[in-house]
Structure formats: structure tokens, C-alpha cells
Specification:
Shape: globular
Distance between the termini: 43 Å
Number of helices: 16
Strand order of the largest sheet: 5-4-6-1-7-17-2-18
Largest sheet: 8 strands, mixed
Number of strands: 19
CATH architecture of the largest domain: 3-Layer(aba) Sandwich
Amino acid sequence: MAPLRPLPKRLIFISIDGLRPEFYLDSRYPTPHLQRLARQGLAARRSTPIYPSVTYPNHASYLTGTYSARHGILSNSIFSWEDCKRERWYFDHSHFKCPTLWDLAREAGLKTCSLRWPTSAGAPVDYLVPESFSLTPGRPQLDWMLTIQASHPAPYIESLLRQCGREAPDGHSGYDQWMTDALIFTLQKHQPDLSFLHLIQLDHVQHSAGREAPEVDQALRQTDNRIGELLEAIDLKTDCVIFAGDHGFSDFTARVNLNTLFHEQGWITLKEGKLEDWEVIAHNSCGQAAVYTKRPWLTGQILEILEAHSHGVYQILSAPKLSGLEAFPEAICAVDAAEGFSMGDGFTGELVTSIDQTRGEHGYLAQNQNLQGGFVAAGVGIPLKKIIDSMELIDIAPTLAELMHLPMPTAQGKSLFKAWEISGTTDTWAQPGLTQHPDGPETRDPAHPYTLHNG
């Protein structure tokens, strides 16, 4: 029987929403802390998200190691056969159809912390501030109230409000700073064994301004500063920290309004411009849409109409293709916008409408490097100075489970330790001969290979 791997005193997993591999592999980006960790520990050139490459399904996969049809978080918003409105999101932990790392940790008696993680409201977490908001833009006080109301336990939340501030954070950057401060406070005060943090500013900026806008560098700089603050609060001689990106981004300048096709056929009924009833509808999420029908006998006609308008604008993912991806089990197909396009919400007017500036999007099938997410890890249990060419996002959960000595038989992904070809002892992991990071060696304290230097 192989010996158990070294157990970190604390495992800290941080999702940087929209983290792309080049942000730590290319020294032109203002991320010195993240780049230093990538050089000293382990980094991936690409981490392939599940389909659709949107936030909530992939954050569910971080916790379960499964595809969306298995874990039950199919998109960001919940499709309703009754009214099709995207007014309900997968906020609640009760939506999961299989065990999460939180469930496994609770069974093992481990203490957990989760801050602004998708689908975490009501989760079996000891120190919890979930992601929760009103879906009504421009109501920050309401969003903050909903967040605090869903948090627990009450004494812990009161201590966070005293320490980090009671007022609603100022925008996405303010939320990221508040949650980072909350994690540092929680690590110092409560010493959770397993912690999760979701940072959102980088995703928001790329949506608003595109992949390479100046605002992206600003968001990267601020995010990396928060990473530096966190590194001051942990000890990589005893802890393990992992940073991951759930998806990349693709720029677009036009939107595809699929529902105009279905409205023209009389399959969508509007009243005063708003949806009243439907027979066929596209449920959009970022750069893709799942197509549903209440009339299965229309499927052939629907596919013909979609195919007739697809050239250069979108691709169709058939039901058998979706079955292979384990996504959207009730949809007759899905549609991915082509490069340069996203999905729009229009029911009338033109199929394709232009927008006034370049913006960023994801959600598409991750067929190219632009849609790939990132992965950087350092500390106890992580190999030194190793870079891997590619990995699957669903492999992260079983890897975390193995790091924490938690059995995870329900995972569809595989622990990355096999891919890393690590024999099982710290001495072996630290031996030379591992693939070198392209940026070359980093100065280290000989007392411990993960001691960081600012010089």
C-alpha cells in the first residue's frame, strides 16, 4: 500500500474568475507574486473548463470533479420550463446532485471556510459567506444584505463585519478586498483546514472591456496585491495554496439573437415586448445557448432553421455531442457563437446586432487557448519548479481530496498526482529533473524551497 502523502496543515483554494495562463507565464503582466509562485511551484499552460465554460458549472466541478449533468449545476441561471426567465441562479447548495468537497470534509471532521463561492448558500461549511445577489443591477445595498443574511454562523459574521467593514463593498474590487481580508482574518482566528475564496474583479473587467484592455492590467495588479497579502498570512512550509481560473476569454463585437428565429416561426409569443409563452426557446448564458422545445416533433425543423443561419455566426452542438460533454441533458441542442460574437437576448429585429465597443466573453466550448483557464499551486504536497502542458478542470477536485486524504469515489476526474508522476515522498518531489519553468530558476531560501523573496 502506497504511503499517504504529506498532509497540509491548511489547504487554501482560490478561484480567480477569468484567470488566464498567460497572466503568470508571461512576465509582461503585472503579477509578480503569482509569477513567483508559478516559477517555484507548479503551473499549467492550460486548464480546460467543462462545457459550458461559465462560472457556476465550473465552480461546481471544482467541488465535485464531475461534469454538469452529473453535479446538477447546468449553467449560471436555472432554466424554467414554465416561464424561461433567467431570474433564478444556482445560489443554493441544495442544487448539487452529488457530494462536494464540503460534504466530504464535514464527514471527516475537518473545519471549512468558503467566501463568495458560487452555489454555497446553505452549504455544510463552518465559516460561510456565500455568493448571493439580487440580479437587479445597481442595488449594492440589497446585494450586500442578501449576502450577509445567507452567511453563518452569526458570531463569526459579526466578527467579520467588525474587522472588515459593515458597509457594502464598493464594486467588484471592493468585494474582492473585503473577501480577501475576511479569509486572512479567518485563517488567523479560526485555522480552518480547507478554505475556498472566489475573486471576481478580473472576470468583470474582461467582460466590460475585453481581453487586453488597460483595465485588465489594473485588475491584475490589484488581484496580485491581494495574493501578496494572503501569502503573508500563510506558511508554505506547512500550508498548501492553489490558484485556479475557471475559464479564459474571447473578444466580441456583435451578438447573435437566436430567439428572433423562433419568434419569426411563431414559436415565441410576446406581450408588450415581453415573453408570454413559448414552444421553442434559446436559454442564453454568455457566449452560448441551450435550445429547448415543448414540442419534440419540431426538433428536425428547428435544427434545419438553425443550420440555415449558422454560417460564420455560430456552431450547433447536437444532442449526441451534448451527451458526450455531459451537459444540458434536456436540450435538443446547444449553440456556440462564433469567434467575435456573443449571445443576445432579443426576440425581435435582426439576428445579429453590433455593439459599440469590444467586450469579452466565455461560455463557448473551450476549443482554443483563449478559453483556457489557469492553475498555480505551491506548498506542502506540490512538486517544485514543474510546469504541465495541459490538464482538465474536473481533475482539480480529486487532487484536492487526495491532498487532504479524503476519499472521493464519485469524481469523474482523476487526481493530478498521477499525471505529475510523483512517487509519494517529499524528498522525491523536491529532486531535480522536473520540467523547468520557461522563465528559469528563482532564488530560494535553502531552508525551504517555497520561501519567497521579494528581490
